[in-house]
């Protein structure tokens, strides 16, 4: 679909704002919070969800373009597995206690994902240019190796692995430091703004490498910029919420259906859809304890379980019912 | 305006066999230059070197007085358009959107896009998704993209790798006509062809490639001689009703 994406983008923005208001109303109790502290906690959740949703979907759009693969998602390059391994190492005590207590789990996540990013980049260069197929395969392999090491860490942790397991299921934490959420939100908006500046180049990069170079795209430079931006955005989302599956895969595809494939509209549409999905999922997680007829989990249901459980069937539906010329 | 190759060589592996080995040749404006030769003799690689998407290991590709390798990508895009044998678009773009990509490095021009679509008889399917069309239509869309790219540039060079390989006879004729119009309006057209009869009838100049070298070049009527072709292709050629074709003997 091409046509007129602006009205659809405005509609998506209205939906996202509406979901943000609903999330402010829904929490431990339902209703507009009278207590200022509760309002602040819910605001942190709202901005956290918008930030994580934006990061994952913008990163997903860029990686699907970079890797020329409709199945690419922010975690395909081993970033989530690397981050989880970093957190696991800190929790296991593999990092000296004095250092671990100083740097904490967030730095473990960033260090793990950065190392994965560096390895994937170095191993996927061919003649000075990122080779999409090599990057995809190396990313999958880095994920496999990091996941195996993580299982070893869990094995060594024994019963203490519960906290790590919960982190790996993803969670929008209302108790997150507001300064961290603000920094994440600024990074997300900067990532979106930067990728919008490259939107025409991203369109042209959909051509074969030779054709893209022929129409004037500097592919080597574009791919490095896309890769780094997608990596930073993914790392920010992991830092704020742990690994949350499927949003970075589904949001770009839904955005293509609604606003078309041109990257200027696609990036904005995907960011709004990603934010809306996270807000909806976080609200649903908050609503579950209010439904007396279903068995109540210990604590709030991790949001990653919900996004993966719903995202998988939605993707299969798209695959079977949509002939977009890419997912056929 | 000329596109001049000065002793260019290229290998994909180092050390490795040179796919293009010390080639020097010159393509002129106002003319169609056909590159012919058997499979795997370096024709497509030579075309990619001429388009600037590959850099030669040795030698220089000169566009007029400028070294092609030193030109910024956007400047090069305004002068040189390249059409591969198998165009590819990894996104569900429509034909019109694909043709518009030809203007990536240049000011947007709806007129350039409309004219290119019309020239390639694609106006009626411009709204359709590129990847849902036949290979022949995709080839014509890639040609339209190149035409939009060099629209109004009479000093441009258009390089095409077997642009008629998936076309029906009517569209082969129509494409040949488009290429002739490009040449008569001042551009240099360089095209790889396997159809020797078409190469002979369409081109002004012909380069014959064999084992990484241009072994003969000049006016098509002089170069496309049965004796030369027999040496290159390893089969006999003859004229039947003034049409060049491989013979069974």
What does this structure look like?
The complex is a heterodimer of chains A (328) and B (249). Chain A is an all-alpha fold and 328 residues long. Chain A has one domain (5-321): ABC transporter involved in vitamin B12 uptake, BtuC, CATH 1.10.3470.10. In chain A, 73% of the residues lie in helices and 1% in strands. Chain A has 13 helices and 2 strands. Chain A has helices at 5-25, 36-66, 79-92, 97-123, 132-157, 162-168, 178-197, 199-204, 209-214, 219-241, 247-259, 263-287, 303-321; strands at residues 125-126, 129-130. Chain A has a two-stranded antiparallel sheet. In chain A, strand 1 (125-126) and strand 2 (129-130) form a beta hairpin. Chain B has helices at 43-51, 73-79, 95-100, 110-119, 135-149, 169-184, 196-202, 220-223, 226-233; strands spanning 2-10, 20-28, 32-36, 58-63, 66-67, 80-83, 157-161, 188-192, 205-210, 213-219, 237-240, 243-246. Chain B has one domain: P-loop containing nucleotide triphosphate hydrolases (Rossmann fold). Chain B has 249 residues and is an alpha/beta fold. Chain B has a 6-stranded mixed β-sheet with strand order 6-7-8-3-9-10, sandwiched between helices. In chain B, strands 2-1-4-5 form a 4-stranded antiparallel β-sheet, with helices on one face. Helices cover 33% and strands 27% of the residues of chain B. In chain B, a hairpin with a 2-residue loop joins strand 11 and strand 12. The radius of gyration of chain B is 18 Å and the shape is globular. In chain B, helix 4 crosses helix 5 (135-149). Classes of the chains: A mainly alpha (328), B alpha/beta (249).
């Amino acid at each position: 679909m091409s046509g007129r994406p602006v009205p659809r983008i405005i509609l998506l923005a209205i939906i996202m704002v509406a979901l943000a208001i609903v999330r402010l109303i829904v929490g431990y109790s339902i209703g507009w919070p009278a207590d200022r502290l509760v309002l602040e906690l819910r605001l942190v959740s709202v901005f956290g969800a918008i930030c994580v949703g934006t990061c994952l979907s913008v990163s997903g759009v860029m990686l699907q373009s970079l890797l020329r693969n409709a199945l690419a998602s922010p975690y395909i390059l081993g970033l989530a597995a690397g981050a989880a391994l970093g957190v696991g190492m800190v929790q296991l005590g593999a990092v000296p206690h004095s250092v671990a207590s100083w740097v904490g789990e967030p730095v473990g996540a960033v260090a793990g994902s950065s190392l994965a990013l560096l390895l994937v980049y170095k191993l996927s260069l061919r003649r000075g240019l990122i080779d999409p197929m090599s990057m995809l395969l190396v990313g999958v392999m880095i994920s496999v190796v990091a996941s195996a090491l993580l299982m070893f860490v869990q094995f060594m942790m024994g019963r203490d692995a519960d906290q790590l397991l919960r982190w790996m299921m993803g969670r929008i934490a209302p108790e997150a430091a507001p300064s961290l959420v603000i920094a994440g939100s600024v990074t997300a908006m900067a990532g979106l703004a930067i990728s919008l500046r490259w939107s025409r180049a991203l369109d042209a990069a959909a051509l074969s490498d030779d054709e893209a170079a022929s129409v004037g795209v500097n592919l080597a430079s574009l791919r490095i910029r896309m890769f780094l931006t997608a990596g930073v955005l993914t790392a920010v989302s992991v830092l704020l919420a742990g690994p949350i599956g499927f949003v970075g895969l589904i949001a770009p595809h839904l955005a293509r259906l609604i606003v078309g494939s041109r990257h200027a509209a696609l990036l904005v549409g995907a960011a709004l859809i990603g934010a809306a999905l996270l807000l909806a999922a976080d609200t649903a997680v908050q609503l579950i304890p209010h439904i007396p007829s279903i068995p109540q989990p210990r604590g709030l249901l991790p949001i990653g379980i919900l996004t993966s459980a719903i995202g998988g069937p939605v993707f299969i539906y798209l695959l079977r019912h949509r002939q977009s010329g890419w997912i056929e | 305006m000329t596109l001049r190759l000065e002793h260019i060589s290229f290998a994909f592996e180092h050390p490795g066999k040179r796919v293009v080995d010390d080639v020097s040749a010159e393509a002129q404006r106002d003319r169609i230059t056909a590159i012919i030769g058997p499979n795997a003799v370096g024709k497509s690689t030579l075309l990619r070197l001429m388009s600037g998407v590959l850099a030669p290991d040795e030698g220089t590709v000169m566009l007029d007085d400028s070294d092609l390798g030193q030109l910024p990508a956007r400047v090069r895009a305004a002068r040189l358009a390249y059409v591969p044998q198998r165009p590819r678009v990894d996104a569900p773009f429509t034909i019109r959107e694909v043709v518009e990509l030809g203007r990536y490095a240049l000011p947007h021009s709806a007129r350039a896009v409309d004219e290119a679509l019309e020239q390639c008889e694609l106006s009626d399917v411009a709204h359709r998704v590129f990847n849902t069309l036949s290979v022949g239509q995709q080839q014509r869309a890639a040609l339209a993209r190149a035409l939009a790219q060099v629209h109004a540039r009479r000093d441009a060079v258009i390089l095409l790798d077997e642009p008629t390989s998936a076309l029906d006879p009517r569209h082969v004729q129509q494409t040949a006509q488009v290429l002739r119009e490009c040449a008569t309006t001042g551009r240099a057209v360089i095209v790889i062809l396997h159809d020797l009869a078409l190469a002979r009838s369409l081109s002004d100049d012909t380069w014959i490639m064999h084992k990484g070298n241009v072994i003969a070049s000049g006016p098509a009527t002089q170069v496309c001689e049965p004796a030369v072709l027999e040496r290159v292709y390893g089969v006999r050629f003859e004229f039947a009703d003034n049409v060049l074709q491989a013979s069974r003997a």
